[in-house]
Amino acid sequence: MAKESKAPGRRMTIYDLATLSGASPTAVSSVLNGTWKKRRISVALAERITRIADEQGYALNMQASGLRRDKSHLIGMIVPKYDNRYFGSIVEKFESMARDRGLFPIVTCTQRDSELEIQAARAMIAHQVDCLIATGATDPDRITEICAAAGVRSLNLDLPGRLAPSVISDNRGGANALTQRILAASAGDRVPGQPLLYVGGRPDHNTTERIQGFRDAHSEAGIAVDDTMILATGYAPEKAERALGELAAKHGKLPAAMFVSSTIPLEGVIRWIKASGHFGDCPPHIGCFDWDPLVSVLTENIIMLRQDVPGMLQELFKMIDSEPADARVIEVPTLFQE
Amino acid sequence: MAKESKAPGRRMTIYDLATLSGASPTAVSSVLNGTWKKRRISVALAERITRIADEQGYALNMQASGLRRDKSHLIGMIVPKYDNRYFGSIVEKFESMARDRGLFPIVTCTQRDSELEIQAARAMIAHQVDCLIATGATDPDRITEICAAAGVRSLNLDLPGRLAPSVISDNRGGANALTQRILAASAGDRVPGQPLLYVGGRPDHNTTERIQGFRDAHSEAGIAVDDTMILATGYAPEKAERALGELAAKHGKLPAAMFVSSTIPLEGVIRWIKASGHFGDCPPHIGCFDWDPLVSVLTENIIMLRQDVPGMLQELFKMIDSEPADARVIEVPTLFQE
DNA sequence: CAAGTGTGCTGCATCGGTTGAGCAAAGATG
DNA sequence: CATCTTTGCTCAACCGATGCAGCACACTTG
């Protein structure tokens, strides 16, 4: 009687396949991972092993494989939220590009919570990711340090860090272009020389740059921007809503046009506009540094800027593939839909 | 001279910690994974090891740990797309509930592509997930079979299967309630006795049930529904857009109210309404079996039904925790925002 | 003081693949 | 026919963590 091939509940292993095929575990392993030609296994044996593996529905144990190799072929990404199309499309594109390279993507969302970010980074390192992408992280350099201590490569996306290479949008240029479009669209409805209102975002690199682009466009148009026009209230819709209410209470009539930092505060802005009735029948012109197809098809008064997600991920994977050592920042131009 | 503690590029292991602390690898392992009391390690040694591990920034190798234990503590989820708030909130909630249970969530998006779904399921099994959740899968039973062959538990979410337990929305009841609301809201604008139009969705369980609920509500209101009023065109916006155009070309004036199966076809519906000018200044009443905060704040004529994601995930994890064997289907009631 | 009990630790095999070294047999070469 | 080369495969160590068995020592008990 032949040796029992496999215990009932247990998963099939290369040792089971070895007994079934009458070959050694080494032969089975090398056939299944493609190194068999280098190891001079005959085509006949390779085919037999492949056939039996297929018949038995064998699945490689990546934990065991990853333990022995020096590369795990895992690539991690942390992302703040899944509540908007921008991060959604980043994740979708990231996963598909990772898979195209034979990497297994692990993505986790950290709720814009810096403590969770660190925990998630540690967990990914524990799972032996080869590389970690920190997307829109609140403290990218902290993550880079943790990764470096564990010998894991890290890259930043969307928000830059000083310690690792970063791929971000051209926030200043994009904000400038968007501001110009809002100024042009609202020219008929604005008091001449009146600046736009800036709403949303928190004091990070991107907001700073966007505000700078916002100011640049104003000064190019010869319009002065007062600091009270900048409401960088964070990303929560409620905060934007409250800030508008407070500003209106203090200043009376608000400008007939505004720059909103993303679709999340946009929700609060729209809510306030509708609820307050501040603008009556003449809704303000809005520019949004973010794109959502439903918003763009539902509205006429909102100009949406679209960040070039495919372009950014192209640059990101270029860096992943080439392993640059310096903490360069790549800025990808933004787009407008059609 | 003491034995060299660690090679430069390599990651710290329990063996390094053992030499550093003068204890055995076994002691280090048991201290770090919490089994040290059972193993009668002294508090003094436990504290020393913990301190050294912290100082050195040690991170457990989960591949090695997972290989040795019978449970990997990995839980996988496949999800069709990240392009809407429904799946986004499912993933966010799933991740946080998994983490609360000490599980590491692995989520991957399969682009509504059945081949990718299978590939992703196989990859997750290869990575030794303890359990796999198939969300909105095109062929959930195929995934269940693949999981079963590998001895991996699987559950369905959003769309039910016949071979594994499922948690889904009460599609029929929700569609009935939504249809009633649309009928009521549009009563003044509809030709009496005229049915609504049904747009979007593909021939799966959920669409079938939603159409049934749609029909139920009509028959309860004494309205007959012609088959030509059902445009189950799939989820792509373009398909919904084209179908409306074709129907209008054939039938002339469309009903003044419609039921749209989710926010994705809604985009096409709105686009067609705006582009065609079919309804002139009197936009149709719309009910959408899905919820998006931006849409709900931007529009007055769209009633949005919200699927109870927290409730569904509560039920899902109840099943994960209790390991039921039967392929029961749990239907969770839907909500309306406020 | 021999036997029994408890404390605090270590040694070794093991999980499932991967890898470098090596071995036997067949074929080529002088 | 002895030697060298090539072909086709196997052996054993190893990756890092875990769990069982067991050992040395101290302390109690009759």
SSE topology:
The structure is a homodimer of 338-residue chains.
Chain A: H1 14-21, H2 25-33, H3 43-56, H4 62-68, E1 74-79, H5 85-100, E2 104-109, H6 114-126, E3 131-135, H7 140-149, E4 153-157, E5 166-169, H8 171-185, E6 197-199, H9 205-220, E7 230-231, H10 237-251, E8 257-260, H11 263-276, E9 285-288, H12 293-298, E10 302-306, H13 309-322, E11 329-332, E12 335-336
Parallel strand pairs in A: 1-2, 1-3, 3-4, 4-5, 5-11, 6-7, 6-8, 8-9, 9-10
Antiparallel strand pairs in A: 10-12
Helix pairs in contact in A: 1-2, 1-3, 2-3, 5-13, 6-7, 8-9, 10-11
Chain A binds a DNA duplex (30 and 30 nucleotides) through residues 11, 13-15, 23-30, 32-33, 35, 39-42, 45, 60-70.
CATH architecture of the largest domain in chain A: 3-Layer(aba) Sandwich
In CATH, the homologous superfamily of the largest domain in chain A goes by the name Response regulator
Number of domains of chain A: 3
What ranges of chain A have pLDDT less than 50 throughout 5 or more consecutive residues? 1-5
Mean pLDDT of chain A: 94
The fold-level CATH name of the largest domain in chain A is Rossmann fold
Helix/sheet category of chain A: alpha/beta
* Oligomer type: homodimer
From the N-terminal CA to the C-terminal CA of chain A, the straight-line distance is: 72 Å
Q: Strand order of the main beta sheet of chain A, please?
A: 2-1-3-4-5-11
Helix percent band of chain A: 40-55%
The gross shape of chain A turns out to be: elongated
Class of the largest domain in chain A, according to the CATH hierarchy? Alpha Beta
According to DSSP, the number of beta strands of chain A is 12
The run of helices and strands of chain A is HHHHEHEHEHEEHEHEHEHEHEHEE
